[in-house]
Design goal:
two-stranded antiparallel sheet, 16% strand, two-stranded parallel sheet, globular, alpha+beta, 4 strands, Nucleotidyltransferase, domain 5, 44% helix
Length: 140
């Protein structure tokens, strides 16, 4: 039995909570998937001004596509460190932490789903779980 590969693109706020997500086939470039995510997201959140992205979204094609979707957004590419050890980089850890939180859900750890809409549904359920946990935490 062969399972199709899928790619997830997520957008999170500064707290690491999911704002928007898409799942598509793995044969689409990251920059093209990022533009699809941004075109979906800016209709929902027109007030966003700054976007932090990793180096997979670097390049003129992504910037041109983003300019077509939303002209006023400022994109900052946060690249990995070339040092041989782990280095915490500004703003990159927010998305990495969110992906790690989502991957704690067993269903998201591997590509088990045959349909992209099912994978997106499980991704949303995992994010709802995270949001409810944050809401139920007691503040001291």
């Amino acid at each position: 039995m062969r399972f199709p590969c899928a790619t997830r693109h997520i957008s999170v706020d500064t707290e690491g909570l999911l704002l928007c997500a898409i799942v598509h086939a793995a044969d689409i470039q990251d920059r093209d998937g990022g533009i699809m995510l941004m075109s979906t997201m800016f209709g929902l959140f027109p007030f966003l001004l700054k976007l932090y992205a990793d180096s997979g979204y670097q390049g003129p094609k992504f910037r041109q596509g983003l300019q077509r979707v939303c002209r006023r957004i400022n994109v900052e590419i946060v690249k990995r460190s070339d040092l041989g050890k782990f280095v915490v980089l500004p703003r990159r850890w927010v998305v990495e932490r969110s992906i790690a939180w989502l991957n704690r859900c067993r269903r998201l750890a591997k590509d088990w789903e045959c349909l992209n809409r099912n994978a997106l549904a499980f991704l949303r359920w995992a994010s709802v779980r995270l949001m409810v946990r944050k809401l139920c935490q007691e503040t001291k």
